[in-house]
Amino acid sequence: MEQYDIIIIGTGAGGGTLLHKLKDSGKKILVLERGAFLPREKENWDSIEVFQKERYHTKEVWKTNGNSDLHPGTSYWVGGNTKVYGGALFRLRERDFERVQHSEGVSLEWPVKYDAYEPYYTEAEKLYDVHGKMGLDPTEPRRSAEYNYPAVSHEPRIQQLHDDLVKEGHHPFYIPLSIRLNEADKVHSPCIRCNTCDGFPCLVDAKGDADLNCVRPSLPNNNVTLLTEAKVTRLVTNSTGSEIDYVEVMHKNELLKCKADVVVVACGAINSAALLLKSFNSKHPKGLANKSDQVGRNFMKHLNVAMLGISTKPNPSVFQKTLAVNDFYWGDKDFKFPMGHVQLLGKSNKDQLASEAPFFTPGIVLDDMATHSIDWWLTGEDLAEPGNRVTMDGETLHLEYKENNMTGFNRLVEKWKHVLGKIDSGGSIIPRGVYLRKDIPISGVAHQVGTLRFGTDPITSVLDINCKSHEIDNLYVVDGSFFPSSGAVNPSLTIMANALRVGDHLTQRLK
């Protein structure tokens, strides 16, 4: 059984970033990824394959509320879900790290505050080629530096939308995007500003993801070994239960045992919790690191709505996902509690709309809807609830989830409909914009966080402030599991920044 200094399980926003941080440490690192490299193929940009057939999502089936089947919208590839994400990399607001009163409860205070994360946010933005512009978002947290890359420009229809919002007193700003784009030198720009970015794999490798930005640049190092199609089945402790002794891995139908001084789990908040639960033994009868009975609990995924704004004005935009609004993040004059965040989605086409429309809807209708629509993504904060949790029944994963904190979020949806109606109304065919709303079901787990939260009290948390298990001295977790609260912006950048922070801790530990 070969001995390593570090084993990293998973190559997504957490695991991939940690690998990049440690690659030059000289330590012997084994990286285990259950997926393969996502293939570059024409289907990368095929809406029917990507959205209707879900070509790049896992085919495994979980169980959810009432023991019904759950087909999760998650991906197992080198780079994890970053291979198909929209690349929107937001910082949490400074207040998100504090105790926040919502209309239906409280989001918990973090044991590590924004100031400790700020330099790692800056480092992560540089690592992931984030394009943006500071000083436009009224809720923007303190920044020590401007973005390294300029904001991605708005196309004419979105610029008009921006200007109309400003006239109404709002504060739209550029989405911070992880993308390899050079608008000043389009000939040499990897990104071509196509309409197949948000939710698609990138055929031309122009998306800033954990695979391209972190894993592949680490592989030339002789101290790094990557095993793909290597699913970790169990973590086995020593006889006292105080350390991970070895990791059981099914690698292409062969069972391997791998040892390391430090084991880092980064399987995603759901699968990391599942791995610890199914690794139970006599010293940890409820699952590893679960003396607190908190492993798998407090699952959060955000309150999300995809909304199609249809107006009489055509929208010829190709790369649409460039604008966001946080004016209602903390509420407004009539509602003193948080509501949430608004951002554009990638531009829908008729094949994407067909995946959710009634089967008898004519294609010409869907095409006309797509031609006249602007696509929105609204996010609200769901609160940590012990009953929203991951459990295991043998090898079957159960994910129980009930939405909460909907009052503020529903106000955001109605508020945004009103805002769009004021700036986009009129016309002889459709006298006012029509706003089609689709609530994202439990299968939408792209923003999964919270199942192994960190804290200073072993009774109420699973991990310490360095994301090490309170109970197992060489077990760390660096995906979204550690979040005590979810905020209302995409969690990817915070996961990346935290992995860099933990990487500094591990570098000191392993000296």
How would you portray this structure in words?
With 511 residues, the chain is an alpha+beta fold. It has a single domain (3-509), classed as FAD/NAD(P)-binding domain (3-Layer(bba) Sandwich), CATH 3.50.50.60. Helices cover 21% and strands 20% of the residues. The protein has ten helices and 21 strands. The strands form five sheets. Strands 1, 2, 10, 11, 12, 13 and 21 form a seven-stranded mixed beta sheet that branches. A six-stranded antiparallel beta sheet has the order 8-15-16-17-14-20. A four-stranded mixed beta sheet has the order 4-3-19-18, covered by helices on one side. α1 runs parallel beside α5. The longest helix is centred in the last third of the chain and has 18 residues, at 406-423.
Shape summary: globular
Distinct helical segment count = 10
Q: Please count the beta strands (DSSP E, at least 2 residues each).
A: 21
- CATH level-four homologous superfamily name: FAD/NAD(P)-binding domain
Fraction in beta strands: 15-25%
Number of domains: 1
Q: Which characteristics define this entry?
A:
FAD/NAD(P)-binding domain, globular, single chain, 511 residues, 6-stranded antiparallel sheet, 7-stranded mixed sheet
